[in-house]
Amino acid sequence: MNRKIKNALISVSDKKDLKNILNVLRKYKINIISSGGTYRSVKKLGFKCKEVSEYTGFDEMLDGRVKTLHPKIHSGILFNRKKVTHKKQMMEKKFESIDLVIVNFYPFKESLKKTFNNKKIIENIDIGGPSMVRAAAKNCEDVVIITDKNDYLDFIKEIKKYKGKTSFNFREKLAAKAFSLTAFYDSMIAEWYNQKLQIKFPERKIFFGKKINQLRYGENPHQKSSIYLSDLKYEKSNLEQLSGKDLSYNNYNDIFAGLDILFSEKKLPCTVIIKHANPCGAASNKSSFKSFINAQCSDPVSAFGGVVACNYKITKKVALEMNRTFFEVILAKGFDKAALKILKKKKNMRVIDISNVEYRSDITTKIYDNSFLLQEKDQTIFDKKKLKFVTKTKPTKNEIRDMEFAFKICKYVKSNAIAIVKDNATIGIGAGQQNRLDSCRIAVQKARKFQPKKLYNSIAASDAFFPFADGLKTLISAGVKTVIQPGGSIRDKEVIDAANKANIKMIFTGVRHFNH
Amino acid sequence: MNRKIKNALISVSDKKDLKNILNVLRKYKINIISSGGTYRSVKKLGFKCKEVSEYTGFDEMLDGRVKTLHPKIHSGILFNRKKVTHKKQMMEKKFESIDLVIVNFYPFKESLKKTFNNKKIIENIDIGGPSMVRAAAKNCEDVVIITDKNDYLDFIKEIKKYKGKTSFNFREKLAAKAFSLTAFYDSMIAEWYNQKLQIKFPERKIFFGKKINQLRYGENPHQKSSIYLSDLKYEKSNLEQLSGKDLSYNNYNDIFAGLDILFSEKKLPCTVIIKHANPCGAASNKSSFKSFINAQCSDPVSAFGGVVACNYKITKKVALEMNRTFFEVILAKGFDKAALKILKKKKNMRVIDISNVEYRSDITTKIYDNSFLLQEKDQTIFDKKKLKFVTKTKPTKNEIRDMEFAFKICKYVKSNAIAIVKDNATIGIGAGQQNRLDSCRIAVQKARKFQPKKLYNSIAASDAFFPFADGLKTLISAGVKTVIQPGGSIRDKEVIDAANKANIKMIFTGVRHFNH
Q1: What are A350's strand-pairing partners?
Q2: Would you state the torsion angle of the CA atoms of residues B359, B363, B364, B366, taken in this order, to the nearest 10 degrees?
Q3: Of A6, A87, A138, A173, which is the active-site residue?
Q4: Is B2's pLDDT higher than 80?
Q5: What pLDDT, in 10s, does the model give residues B457-488?
Q6: In angstroms, rounded to a whole number, what is the distance separating the alpha carbons of residues B472 and B462?
Q7: Best of B235, B275, B280, B433 to disrupt the A interface by mutation (most A CBs within 10 Å)?
Q8: ipTM of the assembly?
Q9: Ordered domains of chain A (ranges, CATH)
């Protein structure tokens, strides 16, 4: 039913655009109840307003901790306008109806940016505000709840349309929004506490996200999609787009896969090229130019139209080389002025500065329908002290460093994963196969196709043990001379024997890196 | 600081185990304040108790909607015990401290099971409870907040240890739990409203989950992990395990991939075998036995140790066949008694009844660090009316039906995906490659290895268009005679020409099925 508004309670920390709504309230002779800063603002803007304490007859106390938590306020919001007993009780107490509640919460999130003082942060947990918002949203049958100044305009339209009244449909939508807000607000507080107390797997886990963009579509054109940000600190993504079309769902998906690998390289300039969420090339090198060239050479066919992620500042030289082909997205830790000018020429290519991107969470989550799997991120490569040198010939220190690179890249390839590497650059990646032998074959085929000479004396990494010797033999036949793998198969002996027979070097890490 | 408790406020819908805690409160001379059903229970158990209305001097009103929303209650919880001004105000008002709050909420979720009457559901949205819980949790510096009867025992230990007091560490943990609960509670309400109003991409999206199991480990042994259930209706997973070891993270991941495919086949008995989140075999057949055999023949090497998902009841004949090799998990819509007896013999094999599993959500989500991508599920295959018959030779109705099966399976293979199919059974799957040509090659290699004869006159499906004719030519050379793909490449003409030259049949669906 359409409802008339008699009294409005306003308590907002964000006082922008208040005047617009106050004008309309005055027009429809709606009384305003308010307190503290909002009360002063309303008066200053020249509108009539009653203090909450005057309205309830109860002095605000405890530095404002208790002011609206009063039966007169909550009865006014919560009573059922259609129930005779409710109306009678309200009359007896001389309580009036409160039909519009406009409330913002204490800025909990903002307090996290301003201070590390826990007591000050906790002081910013709003108690009275959420109580009123929840009460008003529960009773949206009769009450309007506004939690966002962006809804002022819709409210003004609505009340003008219905001459001082509002429709149930309108009130219900605002109630849904209000409960999303209270859930979101408490999720942030819970997350802050869980982080503080290092609780990674709480009994009840809540993810909260604020929509930052509606995407053109999802993984495919017939799927609608949006991207959300879930952060206790930031209000927007740290991907700073400098040029090009809007990012698509698949762009984001590839970007995320690329950043994961990029963050694992902390010493050298590194380039990673992603296609369909798998790396098709990755290379580290003292020269950023060479790292790009090497990453691209790994599989130039797949690299076309891929996402390129660079942990360095892009120079003119690199930009010129990049522009010789087409990439959907270029990610880098900054761009020289001349480089940016060159890259901006391709209007379809998205150019993104990732200087401010950093990891926020040490947990990954996979959601499937009404279940989700929570796990710690795979943040280790291997422990040098626990390496097992299982073959007769042992690798040198330098070789172990190169093997570490191979194993690290392999970790980010979808399982089953094989990465063949030469000079800190992939030359063949076997991704996403249902058995290890197939991954070995694909990795070898790629290397043979694009850089066959580099196969000689190359290094291969496997994300999990070889269940049989067949996969290893495929790698050896192609020229691989050093192998890094977790070990742990019941047929490890058979695999070690094959390695020794071919006189190659193999180490076991004891650490598996499945990634699906 | 350790804190003594003077007054406790108790308001619980779950009255189990109340006696244990009441005994301890009496021992330490703690006064009890309560109302309604809790008040009656406490009295009945033979303990002293003061009614909330007697305590506040304010009669409960509006059928209990307003009783604890009173300054005397909230001041008692919220005042800062160390602040002189706060203590002075409390003295002036003759308000006392409330140092322990034990509250359960109205059972909102349970009400969803009991009724479809929205008003009754909304009546079960608790307002007073969450207000007290949030106030007590905010002030955990001084107040104990218990929201779960499973914490009674810890509380009893704590208060005995500190002789009537509690430690800050203890109170803070309970506060973290309390905010998780209020966030969870409001998330459910928000989700209920969003479903009701068909809001798929709300401004603020909140996922809530209740831990149902701590897993042995995550994707790899060095990662901790747990599985959560996020459901407005159920309290536990609908996967009913009948036998075998506990499910692992990777089991769940493969199960979810398998169910997705299985749900897409509604007519015929269908078997899907999953390994590393990709199908390595899928087959539909009037005979469930044949569907299993065909699925396994597609890639018997990869199938070993996989997850088998069946949309039918498993008979003795199928069970005997299954037991000839090893699978990690068998999922089926029921098991004959004899079949179950056979399958249970393998102690390591998890046997799971999926009869009660159903889709709950039409949204999928990918979480990456502090971002997440929300999209509608890919719930279409193609629109028969929009098929384009692009080659000179056109497929028959029966062939189109077979092509639909091929395209459907292809949809669930990780992109880039190629599925080669014969008689409603995959014979070669090319998964997860960074370019389409490689996926074509892998699919052909698999078919050649295991069932080369079936390649003749087979059907191939591609999840996205062929960017060049090379991939298609690879399929044609292997014996493929019918191809289904979305179309839409700038080189479609080149691809159609190649198809016509080889005199094969090809249709364009206009629908892409990327899946990463």
Answers
A1: A329
A2: -140
A3: A138
A4: no
A5: 999 999 999 999 999 999 999 999 999 999 99
A6: 9
A7: B433
A8: 0.91
A9: 3-196 (3.40.50.1380), 239-353 (3.40.140.20), 384-508 (3.40.140.20)
